[in-house]
């Protein structure tokens, strides 16, 4: 997930990496020289699978212990008949489910050991160790039959109480070392785990960030998030760090691009000031440099929410190269109304198979008929000149072909995810409605086609009962692996 965090920033000059030993020393070695699997293909069959985090879910009567549910892709799309439920009480998983751990708060995926099957990282930001709310990560390795429950768990060495590492996660080969890494954020900083194939272990490369213009040397925690994509067009991903700090005298809302300086260091390539929210990174114009879309769902200065896109370039992102979209943009259905929360979540994928990324936008606060907060989702298309509102598609639970019906507080569109679950070359759309059935939650799956996702055909939805997990307050669909 993908998207929440709170690091402490320290005033100073340029930042370099500081390498420290980490507890993830049992990373499974590759069984062969297989080509690495794409993210979320846990059994290596070529179909993208879906991981759903339910950090508020109840496990063995423990509220907020959290769980992750997994359903596997197939020729017909996601197959809920083939599924897994992962908790900290699952046999082979380190630790134990405890109230308030919030296991499943964030998830990310990559083939870390290059065995041809993707692995899954799950965070528990409120996990206790010798200190309270330090946070931890659990890594589940892919196998031919799916995710293995013989998992490995670690925190970040030297973490402080209430550090809450794992509030956001993202994965990719950030240091161009030939193996996927993953980045994290927490209340006092951010960093990344780099897989070392020689040592067959993981290392942490931790960063403290400079804040130009900050008056103090120790600022209060700020809200931040980590994402990734190849913005510079280098052939490997960079980390996108978004943060806001209400006490800084400058750069109160920033998005910066961090690229590898060497195997152990990252350097900031560019920085822009922008209202921070959920981010999705994708190449909307087909120039082989990913663009950065930022969801800004609040009503301040842009009633109803908006999405701002910064164009990627060889030098990163720039203040002057931005475009904004809202429900008032030509071609986008509806109208901007206070509380719509357009941009509450974003995801990129090529739905119509034209070689350009499209953008799914969640708007969970939209009123549908008389149902306030029923919510909906949009699909905007990439074109040669970038993302456009022309031909944008809108769907709610009252749209023909979508299961169920729009109800007050469903929050349909609180999460969106695009991924090709049936391997037809077109991204399919998954939409979370964590408010469904008074907080039980639900997930709806809509197949991509040449025309986008409309008209809808073959869509289906499921709730906690599909996985035989506790529905009360589970908020299924609150986190979708993307």
Automatic annotation (TrEMBL):
Keywords: Glycoprotein, Hydrolase, Repeat, Signal. InterPro entries: FG-GAP (IPR013517), Int_alpha_beta-p (IPR013519), Integrin_alpha (IPR000413), Integrin_alpha_N (IPR028994). GO terms for biological process: cell adhesion. GO terms for molecular function: hydrolase activity. SUPFAM superfamilies: Integrin alpha N-terminal domain (SSF69318). GO terms for cellular component: integrin complex. Residues 1-33 form the signal peptide. This is FG-GAP repeat protein.
